[in-house]
Write a structure and sequence with these properties.
Number of helices: 14
Strand order of the largest sheet: 6-7-5-17-14-9-10
Structural class: alpha+beta
Largest sheet: 7 strands, antiparallel
Strand content: 15-25%
Shape: globular
Length: 507
């Protein structure tokens, strides 16, 4: 009996060992579809013949400071599963340098008749793990480098808000870091479809002030690597003598006002005490508390009316090429968002689903991510954000436009707050008789990778509805404070989700 049990145990052990061996063999076979050989990744490496062309070669960029310890854990897992030379820590390797070097090698090899290199370039995909700021940074790099056959990008949600990943179906919760979970993500990347999205260019110009400074001030210091505002060089065609000119770009949103002020306070606090902000739930709770202390929930009581957008700036929009028109903004609006993707403040959709009849009357459409238009939405305060939690909730729809221009003059306030894809800063305003101008315009497109659960809609995708279901839009054009107060029926969860800042501290 004992001998039989021993034989049975030995048999089960051999079967289990065989299954593990077969599992390892399948895993190796699967990972070959994503791997890139050293002779392409490391300049000067020995060129070897390769028999198998991977179906989905990837380059992986990871912000190891994101997600508490998760970024570092992901780096270890990806490096163990793939060729370690195709996995990069953004705290050590600048993505523009990495991609320039890689594409220079690929072009040289192609010129020498290497068909394998040509196939790698044709099939290459990028994975970026980090917060929205990190994802925007990579999008900016790929856009700026003007690469031949620029690779589409998949985003691993490793921040607090994770609006970019959520908009394309990658989720908004921080991921597991074990090998099986990473392999599952790789397979999703392999199966994902490509989707073009609009890029938006921002110019901010101000005359050199007689005293003080109008330079943008980010929390404690300017983000050194993000695709936020950067001063143009003296040789740039945008530069004008006697003016300070900055340029930047965004893919998800540009916001101004109270929501950006709360985000600025959050990022300042996190930079001062980074050890406290290593948990996604804690970050969201801290953000909500700051929304209260900054007066965002009771803006009409604690904030001066000079903070209202209509008093801060004169706003013009362009719907048709060459034709500017002034945008009428209700006096109670304290936050304005120029939205490119249907995901803001942790996955909420401020634009919602416009009523068909009113859409025709107001010239509004379903928000497509590749139609050359962005949506302009206003909010009164954080209470107003509660409507986004309702089935057909939305902010105050102001316009859809291809360009927008904000003009700030002396007198309304000393400063305001702005945010690009999670990057907040404090913007001083003119102290003398001059104007600060911020203008947003279309700047081409970039390619994202999207899963079947993608929330973003393409105007060229047959599965995207031309007209969404109708909703009651009766509250969309309210102008009186009384009618606005009637809509305040509880504390909102919105505006509490921040995104990443710089590589050393963010998401």
């Amino acid at each position: 009996m004992v001998a039989r049990d021993c034989k049975g145990s030995v048999f089960r052990f051999l079967v289990r060992s065989s299954e593990i061996a077969m599992g390892d063999e399948n895993r190796v076979r699967t990972l070959k579809e994503f791997s890139i050989p050293d002779y392409i990744l490391v300049p000067g490496s020995e060129i070897r013949g390769v028999s198998h062309v991977p179906s989905c070669p990837v380059i992986v960029f990871i912000n190891t400071k994101s997600g508490g310890q998760l970024g570092g854990e992901l780096l270890v897992t990806y490096s163990a599963l793939l060729n370690k030379n195709q996995v990069f820590d953004l705290g050590k390797d600048a993505p523009d340098k990495v991609l320039q070097r890689l594409y220079a090698t690929l072009e040289t090899l192609k010129h020498n008749g290497d068909d394998f290199a040509a196939q790698i370039q044709h099939r290459l995909r990028i994975i970026v793990a980090g917060g929205d700021g990190t994802a925007s940074w990579l999008l900016g790099v790929v856009s700026d480098l003007k690469l031949p056959q620029p690779p589409p990008i998949a985003t691993v949600p490793l921040g607090t808000g994770n609006n970019l990943p959520f908009a394309f179906g990658w989720g908004k919760k921080n991921p597991a870091t074990d090998p099986q979970s990473v392999m599952s993500f790789l397979n999703y990347v392999k199966a994902a479809g490509e989707m073009k999205i609009d890029s938006w260019h921002i110019i901010m110009r101000m005359k050199a002030p007689k005293e003080g400074s109008c330079d943008p001030i980010a929390p404690l210091e300017l983000p050194h690597a993000m695709h936020a505002f950067q001063r143009v060089s003296s040789t740039d065609k945008l530069n004008l003598d006697g003016y300070h000119t900055y340029r930047g770009g965004f893919w998800n949103y540009f916001s101004m006002g109270m929501d950006a002020q709360v985000s600025y306070a959050f990022h300042s606090e996190r930079k001062l005490h980074p050890e406290r902000f290593k948990n996604q739930l804690y970050n969201q709770s801290a953000y909500l508390k700051l929304g209260c202390t900054q007066g965002w929930f009771c803006a009409s009581l604690f904030q001066s009316s000079s903070r209202n957008i209509a008093q801060l700036a004169k706003v013009k929009i362009m719907k048709k090429q060459g034709h500017w028109e002034e945008l009428n903004i209700p006096r109670s609006i304290r936050s304005i968002v120029c939205l490119n993707l249907p995901s803001f403040s942790g996955g909420l959709n401020p634009w919602g689903k416009p009523n068909r009849k009113k859409s025709i009357y107001r010239d509004l459409t379903l928000p497509f991510v590749d139609d050359g238009l962005f949506e302009v939405v206003g909010f009164r305060d954080a209470w107003h954000g509660l409507v986004l939690l309702a089935p057909n909730g939305h902010g105050t729809r102001l316009a859809q436009a291809s360009r927008i221009c904000f003009e700030f003059h002396k007198g309304a306030a000393e400063c305001t707050f702005m945010r690009i894809d999670g990057e907040p800063w404090k913007q001083p305003l003119p102290k003398d008789d001059d104007t600060v101008v911020v203008e947003i315009s279309h700047h081409g497109q970039v390619s994202m990778l999207a899963t079947p659960s993608c929330r973003s809609k393409s105007m060229y995708d047959p599965s995207s509805p031309v007209v969404d279901q109708e909703e009651d839009d009766s509250s969309d054009e309210e102008s009186s404070q009384d009618s606005e107060e009637r809509r305040k029926f509880g504390a909102a969860d919105t505006f509490k989700y921040p995104e990443g800042i710089d590589v050393a501290h963010i998401s």
